[in-house]
Amino acid sequence: MLKKIFSALLIAITINAQQDSSLVLPVTPDASPEAVELLNYLYSISGKKILAGQHSVPLLGSLRLPAVYKATGKYPALFGQDFGFSEPGTWDGINYRQQIVDEAIKRHEQGFIITLMWHAVPPNMEEPVDFSSAIQSQLTDDEWNDLITDGTELNERWKSQVDVIAWFLKQLKYAGVPVLWRPYHEMNGGWFWWGGKKGDDGYKKLYRMLFDRLVNFHGLNNLLWVFNANEVKPGVGSYADYYPGDDVVDILATDVYSEGFNRENYDELLELAKDKPIALGEVGAVPSSKILEEQPRWVWFMLWGDPFGGIQSNRQFFEIYRDEKVITLDELPWTDIDTIKVHYPVLK
Q1: Strand, coil or helix: what is 254?
Q2: What is the pLDDT of residue 341?
Q3: Is the full-model pTM beyond 0.70?
Q4: Whether 186 is catalytic
């Protein structure tokens, strides 16, 4: 009930959003009331609080959520998923996409904030694909030029691939689910086919093509656009070299796996973002309370792997969920915690 009342108030406010200078409007024209609500909430916590987030791979559905709850007594505020690319039934199977959408709608109704991304297949290949030989492949210069040239065969193939994902995103639009959308992430590294391409005809062009296709062609107004780079380090370029522009970015994010949340990365992203929110799009281990104190502008972190796998201890994970700066599901202003249901795997 609280969620419905809160959303109704925001919808009423959004009707007059153009006249209300206190509201921050998303870069998408005529953004949905739910997207406006979410973006303004992120602005409201920027510099004060940070959302806890957990990614869950297609095969596992939401099975990582009860694992987090069992360990901490809390759920993350942010639920992440990937539309996938691989053989049906595998870790990132493309057959799970409808179930991912259904899961996102269910979690949204329970109060979770939804973030989605897509390890997109290169336009010279057909789904399903293998990660190393496809997602991590490279286009030739000629292929890239064809991709960004409207009307070429490769460009039309790319449009068709995007249209498949747009169909799933439209279901979320019709269900009133705002999405933190992280397209073509880690572009300042060279390990994905869309990465390592500087200049106006490089990554920036591809990002803006996707924005145009989803927003102007498909009419998706429920997406908040997240420019999600990788932490800068030797061999990984600066954020600014790949930034497509303030007019197509709502939030800036970076992924942190090896550089330990160093201050240089935080400052560089913050300088580029100016007043826009910044986030930790993916982390290999949760940040410490000390990091959150020293770097207060992060508005969310999303743990990519299993809650207790990899390089973090159980104690570290438990303590960050209890930090007063960290917002969990029960602390979101629209959440009615009684709506939480049993979590079932996507694979049945």
Answers
A1: strand
A2: 66
A3: yes
A4: yes
